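Quiz preparation item.
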C-alpha cells in the first residue's frame, strides 16, 4: 500500500495507449474496396474506433452506402482482420509520454492491465511488437469473455481487477465505451482527450480529462476512490 490513491490502473488500448488509426484505417478500406465502396478518410476512421473491429466495419459500411447481408458482413470482417493482422504495427505508435507514465505508475506501486475491445490475440501481438506487453499483469480483449461482455459491460474490468489481486482501481480510456464500462464497474475514469473521443470531452462523463500522458499520475492523484 502506497500513499498513491490507486493500486491498479486499467488501460484502454486503441486511442489511449496507442494511435492505431493508420493501421486500422487501411484494413477497413481494403474491405470497403472489396465491396466496391469508397474509402473512408483517416479523420473519419478515428471516429469509428472504440467498439471493436465489428462495430468499426458496421459503421464504415453505413457511412459508405449501407449495411450488407450477415454472410457478406462476416466475409468482410475476415478481410479486415487478416489485413490488420498483416500490418498491425506498421504505423501504430505509442502516444507521447505513455512509457514515462507507465514507469511512473509502476514506481508508485500500481499494477497495470489492459482492457480493450480489440480482440485479445491482436491486442497481445500489438503490445508485444511495441515492447510493452510484459508491463501488464492482465490483458483482456473484446472477445476474451465473449463479445456480449465487451465494453461498455464492466466484466473485463472486474476480471482484470481480480487478476491484479484486487484493490483500488481506476480506468484510463478515450471513448464512451470506456466511461460506461468504468461506471458499470464502479471505478473512476480518466479520459485521454488526444484519443478518438466519440463525444464532446466535457460531456463524456469522465472524472478527469487528460490532454497528455505526462498528466496521468497527477490526474489519478486528484481522483477520489469510489
Ligand atoms: O479497436 C477498437 O475499436 C476498440 O479498441 P479499444 O477498446 O482499445 O479502444
Ligand atoms: Mg479506445
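Solution:
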Amino acid at each position: 500500500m502506497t500513499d498513491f490513491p490507486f493500486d491498479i490502473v486499467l488501460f484502454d488500448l486503441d486511442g489511449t495507449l496507442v494511435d492505431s488509426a493508420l493501421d486500422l484505417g487501411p484494413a477497413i478500406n481494403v474491405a470497403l474496396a472489396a465491396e466496391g465502396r469508397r474509402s473512408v478518410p483517416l479523420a473519419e476512421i478515428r471516429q469509428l474506433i472504440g467498439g471493436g473491429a465489428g462495430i468499426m466495419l458496421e459503421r464504415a459500411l453505413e457511412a459508405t452506402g449501407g449495411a450488407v447481408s450477415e454472410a457478406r458482413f462476416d466475409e468482410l470482417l475476415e478481410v479486415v482482420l487478416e489485413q490488420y493482422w498483416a500490418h498491425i504495427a506498421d504505423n501504430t505508435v505509442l502516444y507521447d509520454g505513455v512509457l514515462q507514465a507507465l514507469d511512473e505508475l509502476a514506481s508508485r506501486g500500481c499494477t497495470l492491465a489492459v482492457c480493450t475491445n480489440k480482440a485479445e490475440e491482436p491486442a497481445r501481438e500489438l503490445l508485444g511488437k511495441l515492447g510493452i506487453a510484459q508491463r501488464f499483469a492482465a490483458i483482456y480483449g473484446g472477445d476474451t469473455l465473449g463479445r456480449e461482455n465487451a465494453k461498455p459491460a464492466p466484466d473485463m474490468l472486474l476480471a482484470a481487477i481480480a487478476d491484479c489481486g484486487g484493490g483500488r482501481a481506476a480506468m484510463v480510456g478515450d471513448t464512451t465505451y470506456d466511461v460506461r464500462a468504468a461506471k458499470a464497474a464502479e471505478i473512476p475514469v480518466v479520459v485521454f482527450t488526444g484519443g478518438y473521443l466519440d463525444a464532446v470531452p466535457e460531456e463524456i462523463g469522465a472524472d478527469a480529462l487528460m490532454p497528455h500522458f505526462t498528466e496521468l499520475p497527477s490526474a489519478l492523484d486528484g481522483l477520489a476512490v469510489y
